[in-house]
Protein 1
Amino acid sequence: MTGDGSPPLTVVLDGHCHDPTVLGGKGAALDRLIGWGIRVPDTGVATAEAYRAVAAQPGPARLLLELAGGDEHGVEEIDRVFRETNPPAALRSALITLGRAIGSGYRLAVRSSATGEDLAHSSFAGLYRSVLDVDPGDAGALVDAVLSVFASLWHPPARTYRSALGIDE
């Protein structure tokens, strides 16, 4: 939780075993490794709350209602809606701060750590987008990479896989 009691938008992983419903599966696993003393590159997570902040914006919110209502949208349309989203200023700032904190002069890989990803009976390997070689000093590129990964949650192959396994959207 943040100082005002709200969930954090980003977390620098420090081995304190943060809640997987906040970090997602990969994030929580990496946090455990750090806690066990295993060397892991500086790592952080845009939390489930960060995703919710983007999904609540007008474009994504409308798109998600349409998808829930049975409308179909292709990858290009989904990507466009998320790419054109203007994240709340607090989220944008938190992402930029996180990127600088973990970048340490290196380029970043922005990957999914969805809370419903890689469960005991499923693996989403390759279904969600990864964006490699992101310059943590380029705020626009960093935010765009995060939005791109968020958008891939709604790509048709990921939705079909979740539906086939009975995983709630």
Protein 2
Amino acid sequence: AYLALHRERPVERRVLSNLLWSERSEVSARRNLRQALHNLRGVFAREIDLPPLFVGSRTTVQLNPELDCWLDVDSFRESADEGLADEDGGDETALSVAARLYVGDLLAGFGVEGAPAFDDWLREAQDELRRQVTAVYRKLVAAALEGNNHRLGIDYAHRLLTFDPASEEAHRQ
């Protein structure tokens, strides 16, 4: 998951092993990382006829950029950024796409035992995405109410409250 979300550039193996096995020695963490990557390569090589899953060097690893893969998180971010970029209300179509793509917290319920660094990274990533979806819904509520589509505005405000229950503005709307 970490490599998929950072696939635009190589990640230092040291960083990845510390993220996943922060409570182990560096030697043990690096060995675990090598074994995990080997296992993943094996699973994907058997199941799917794809180019190599990972590329890199002795010090870096990266999800192969030649792999044709779609991530909902990337599509959400792209649509949200597009929709939020316009100060005059935003691109409602892009905002609607972003709202449909966000179905809950990133990797909800997932954790790595004994990896507090991973848990911290995941919490930060979830918070960032939650802030972004909150901004998306705020713009959608405003656009719906401005267009006198009160039913849709109320629906968006209810969804906004699931991400930001303390929002006085959403309660008023």
